[in-house]
Amino acid sequence: MGSSRSKPSPIMSLSANTLSIGQPADAFKSGRIEQLVRILVVVGGLSAALAVIVIFGGKARLHWPNFSLLAAAPVIIQVHVTAAVTALTIGTGLMFGPKGTTIHRTFGWTWVIAMMTTAVSSFFIRQINPNGFSIIHALSAYVSIAVPMGVAFARRHNIRAHRRMMTGVFLGGLIIAGAFTFAPGRLMWQVFFG
What we know:
single chain, 194 residues, globular
């Protein structure tokens, strides 16, 4: 005869150490840790950007942005800045919003296009080193490789690798590279502090 024991319901399970309703306690802790890591990534990146401004700033004076400087810039710079701001805005929402939803996937593809546009357009911007590439272009090369890898991880349902790759791209390709655009003498410095 069969066993009279029934399996616990997926909604409520009882183990020796925990009672969980819905997700197991470890999944809850893991989600909270991931949220904390995302916050630390953004705060750390913004702190790095602020450090660049303070260390290299000299006599910076924050003022209302002078967008006429962007309007007068070459088209490739306008495309680059537009794509970067789009990627930063969407990326922030993706990091803190719900994952795996149709909205996440739709905005995720938009973010991928914006990031790739940002990376590729940067190869045509050479104000730092007119005769060649600079260290910032190394970040662009990283983004050009890492974004397709992150997409491939998502399509293979390797969510952990996808999350790590895209968080790294967000930090390195947007926050850190973006911090360097605010170095004195560069266009974004002049728009906000010059």
